[in-house]
Specification:
With about 160 residues, this protein is α+β, with helices and mostly antiparallel strands. It has 4 helices and 7 strands; from the N terminus they run βααβββαβαββ. It has a single domain, classed as Aminopeptidase (3-Layer(aba) Sandwich), CATH 3.40.630.30. Strands 1-2-3-4-5-7-6 form a 7-stranded mixed β-sheet. A hairpin with a 2-residue loop joins β2 and β3. It is globular. The mean pLDDT is about 95.
Length: about 160
């Protein structure tokens, strides 16, 4: 990927298959359970359609018409309306270690602030050590139990950050 321009933009309908493939490829790679995770979410094959509501957005990283990762913000399901969830932030191995996770996270957090959320929540798997390190560097703090009802019962890491 050296020398190639990588942009962050909002998802388009034609990105669905590439985004789904990236998300699903991470699960066996990192030995994350398939059940109770984003792997089996009904919205994973339909990411564009799944992020068209109020106060939600999904971004992709793109280079030369190839989607290389993504991340999004949505209201946290069945919880306080001032809390959003950082969702489905996964990247192709081609771009890991280039600082793009930090750029994507910053982009998502800025969107969350613009949407008027007070707090950003996320769920992760303990296997995703690099991601958890980035979340901590951005001020996310560990919680002792999950918030809302995401259905991701196999995710054992719960974190939140104030957006003020």
């Amino acid at each position: 990927m050296c020398g190639k321009t990588i942009i962050i933009r909002e998802i388009r309908p034609e990105d669905n298959a590439q985004v789904e493939a990236i998300i699903k490829a991470c699960f066996p790679e990192f030995k994350i359970p398939l059940k109770g995770t984003a792997y089996e979410d009904a919205e994973t094959p339909f990411m564009y359609e799944s992020y068209q509501g109020d106060r939600e957005v999904y971004y992709v990283l793109e280079s030369d018409d190839e989607v290389l990762g993504g991340g999004g913000i949505k209201p946290l399901r069945n919880f306080d309306e001032d809390v959003c969830e950082l969702q489905k932030m996964y990247f192709s191995p081609k771009i890991r270690g280039m600082g793009l996770g930090k750029k994507m996270l910053a982009t998502c957090l800025e969107a969350a602030k613009q949407f008027g959320y007070d707090t950003c929540y996320l769920e992760s798997a303990s296997q995703l050590k690099a991601a958890i390190h980035i979340y901590q560097a951005f001020g996310f703090e560990h919680l002792v139990k999950p918030l809302g009802s995401t259905g991701h019962y196999s995710c054992g890491i719960w974190m939140a950050k104030s957006l003020d």
